[in-house]
Amino acid sequence: MDGEYDLLHHGDREVGDGLVDLAVNVRLPEPPEWLRRELAACLADLAAYPDAGRAIEAIAARHGRDPADVLPTAGAAEAFTLLATAFGARNAAVVHPQFTEPEAALRAAGHRVRRAQLSAADGFVLKPDAVPADAGLVFVGNPTNPTSVLHPAATLRQLCAPGRLLVVDEAFLDAVPGEPESLAPQRLPGVVVVRSLTKTWGIAGLRAGYVLAEPEVIARLRAVQPPWSVSTPAAVAMVACSSPRAVEESSRLAGAGERDLAALVSGLRELGVEVAGAPRAPFVLVRVPDGARVRLALREAGYAVRRGDTFPGLDGDWFRIAVRHDMSGFLAALCDLL
Ligand SMILES: Cc1ncc(COP(=O)(O)O)c(C=O)c1O
């Protein structure tokens, strides 16, 4: 706890007991067959220490970047700890509400954190002047968890400043068709992009993500990364999930997800539920009067949604719903409780 918010709370704590899981944003219930085959095939190689070299090449090719711009990590989450350790002393600011691990990592590394708070009244749209001008390390999510808002690349670029590192957490961008507004394809001075493979491919248990940044930044992060932090299976998954076929499949999944998102949002609006902003990610943030009661009653009805009040700036009336294919049962249950 930071006194107000439990920054270490995550959706995985809210599932179980036979509940339908609308709390965790991992899209696939299990990794696809082709990926499981690749993972199974690498088990015989586990006697050797891991080598992320092929993963670096594959990720660089996938994004059109130089291999010197790539650092594979044990999930996007490890990247936040590396950034906090290597650069946290630079007067950090975190744009909230957002995923709490960057702030938790900064605090755990002993750094002071300022919060740049976006407002529900503005649809959680990014306002560059919300970020303190003297912040030397800025974290922002795109699209943002939990608001589901996708910020324009041009607005993000306005946050760039000499001597500042801007960290854009794109953990969910592969779930948005075409990956619009991504800062991943170019090396931009002072811009660090964090990506995750765990959500789209159902491999949260494997820990696979990476950082794209200038070579000097990558070198500083690598210097503080524990040795062999990316396991052989995680490196194999990075190669497999960066192939043109996998990227095409992820784009198809994103298209289907976008249709499911539209259906959920229109179902919620028909019920008169307030939906935050203009959702683009595979989850939706809603505000419901007496939301804590409704969330607990949803559990009684068999549905786990993710509480919102552990995200700085949100209170107990907010909760986040993961997008799944057919949500008519959930919408009917919610309707009964409003
Ligand atoms: C916005 C955001 N970034 C990063 C992560 C961490 O991803 P990974 O599983 O790759 O560590 C999460 C996990 O929920 C997340 O929601």
Please, could you describe this protein's structure?
The protein has 338 residues and is α/β, with parallel strands linked by helices. The chain has 2 domains: 109 residues, Aspartate Aminotransferase, domain 1 (Alpha-Beta Complex); 212 residues, Type I PLP-dependent aspartate aminotransferase-like (Major domain) (Aspartate Aminotransferase, domain 2). Helix content is 35%, strand content 16%. The chain contains 11 helices and 12 strands. The strands form 2 sheets. Strands 2-8-7-6-5-3-4 form a 7-stranded mixed sheet, sandwiched between helices. It has a 5-stranded mixed sheet with strand order 1-11-12-10-9, with helices on one face. The model has no long low-confidence stretch (mean pLDDT 95). Helix 1 runs antiparallel to helix 8 and helix 2 runs parallel beside helix 8.
Give the number of domains: 2
Alpha-beta classification: alpha/beta
Q: What's the average pLDDT?
A: 95
Task: Give me the side-by-side strand order of the main sheet.
Answer: 2-8-7-6-5-3-4
CATH superfamily caption of the largest domain: Type I PLP-dependent aspartate aminotransferase-like (Major domain)
Element-level helix/strand string:
EHHEHEHEEHEEHEHHHEEHEEH
End-to-end C-alpha gap? 31 Å
**How many DSSP helices?**
11
CATH topology of the largest domain: Aspartate Aminotransferase, domain 2
- Which geometry do the CA atoms define? globular
Share in β-strands: 15-25%
User: Largest sheet, described in full?
Assistant: 7 strands, mixed
Question: Briefly, what CATH class of the largest domain?
Answer: Alpha Beta
InterPro entries: Aminotransferase_I/II_large (IPR004839), NHTrfase_class1_PyrdxlP-BS (IPR004838), PyrdxlP-dep_Trfase (IPR015424), PyrdxlP-dep_Trfase_major (IPR015421), PyrdxlP-dep_Trfase_small (IPR015422)
EC number: 2.6.1.-
Cofactor: pyridoxal 5'-phosphate
Protein name: Aminotransferase
